[in-house]
Amino acid sequence: MNPLIWVAIGLAILVVLVKIKTSYRSPAALAAARDALARGGRLVDVRSVPEYRGGHARGAINVPVGEVVAGQHGQLGPKDGAVLLYCRSGARSAMAASALRRAGYRDVHDLGPLANAHKVAG
């Protein structure tokens, strides 16, 4: 078989595995996020404004990932408060979670995709 076919198959498998890893959140992680939200945590949609306007989890605010990474954290509340992040697939929320942790936020929950945010927000 052509080596390029094997490379294409390998890349396809890698993409699927990354998608699964970024979207899966354990029941315990979702329960912890639910508790954090109940304690006053901020649910944050890090997708673009048009994506947010197209539908979002109940109670979520919109702070696009670019703003989070750029340090525009004003809407997120204090650094010791819980912040729950989500996006479409989990990639942008992971980026935002990493940026917030580097900025000193201590209670950051990366929910991954919007479907998980719906599970947490009800």
Primary descriptors:
122 residues; alpha/beta; Oxidized Rhodanese, domain 1; 4-stranded parallel sheet; 4 strands; 16% strand; globular
Short structural description:
By secondary structure, the chain is an alpha/beta fold. It is built from 6 helices and 4 strands; from the N terminus they run H-H-E-H-E-H-E-H-E-H.
Could you walk me through the main structural features you see in this protein, from its secondary elements to its overall organization?
The chain is of the alpha/beta class and 122 residues long. Helices cover 52% and strands 16% of the residues. The protein is built from six helices and four strands. The chain has a four-stranded parallel beta sheet, sandwiched between helices. α5 links the parallel β3 and β4 (107-113). The chain is globular, with a radius of gyration of 16 Å. The termini are far apart.
CATH class (first level) name: Alpha Beta
Number of helical segments? 6
The overall number of domains is: 1
Poorly predicted residue ranges: none
General form? globular
If you compute it from the alpha carbons, what radius of gyration comes out, rounded to the nearest whole angstrom?
Answer: 16 Å
Blueprint (SSEs and pairs):
Layout: H1 3-23, H2 27-38, E1 42-45, H3 49-53, E2 61-62, H4 65-69, E3 82-87, H5 91-102, E4 107-113, H6 114-121
Parallel strand pairs: 1-2, 1-3, 3-4
Helix pairs in contact: 2-6
